[in-house]
Amino acid sequence: MNEKEKIRDYIQKNISILDDVVVGDRDNIFELGFVDSMFAMKLVNFVEREFGTILTNEDLSLLNFSTVENMYGLLMRKRSNE
After folding, report:
1. Long-range contacts of range 74-78, CB-CB < 8 Å, 24 or more positions apart?
2. What's the pLDDT score for residue 19?
3. Domain spans in the chain, listed from the N-terminal domain onward
4. Cβ neighbours of residue 60 under 8 Å, at least 6 residues apart?
5. Which pairs with CB-CB distance under 8 Å and at least 24 residues apart come from 56-62?
6. CATH architecture, domain 3-81
7. Which of 5, 10, 13, 77 has the fewest CB atoms within 10 Å, i.e. is most exposed?
8. Which of 31, 29, 28 is nearest to 14 (CA)?
9. How do the residues of the chain divide into helix, strand and coil, expressed in percent and rounded to 5?
């Protein structure tokens, strides 16, 4: 499973709404009401732990965590800067 699939899978398994909802890579999970601030904190923790990266305060923008695509992009930028 690649990084994008892992992020999508984590969100799918942890959203607290209907089990049959499918999250697309460009779906804004906050605007759609799929997640709340508590889940956002868990998502940050997941990204750091799963991918072995340290996120800075600048990384913690809503935009970076609003879609699977944006989270993947953040991860790729972090890796290219290491």
Report:
1. 74/47, 75/3, 75/7, 75/47, 75/51, 78/53
2. 63
3. 3-81
4. 44
5. 62/30
6. Orthogonal Bundle (1.10)
7. 13
8. 29
9. 60, 0, 40
pLDDT tens-digit readout, 18-53: 567 788 999 999 888 878 888 889 999 999 999 999
> Which segments within the chain are labelled E, that is strand?
none
Q: What are phi and psi of 44, to 5 degrees?
A: -60, -45
Name the amino acid, one letter, at 65: F
Residue 72 has pLDDT above 80, yes or no: yes
Question: Which residue bears the tokens 């996120």?
Answer: 55
Question: Does the pTM of the predicted model rise above 0.85?
Answer: yes
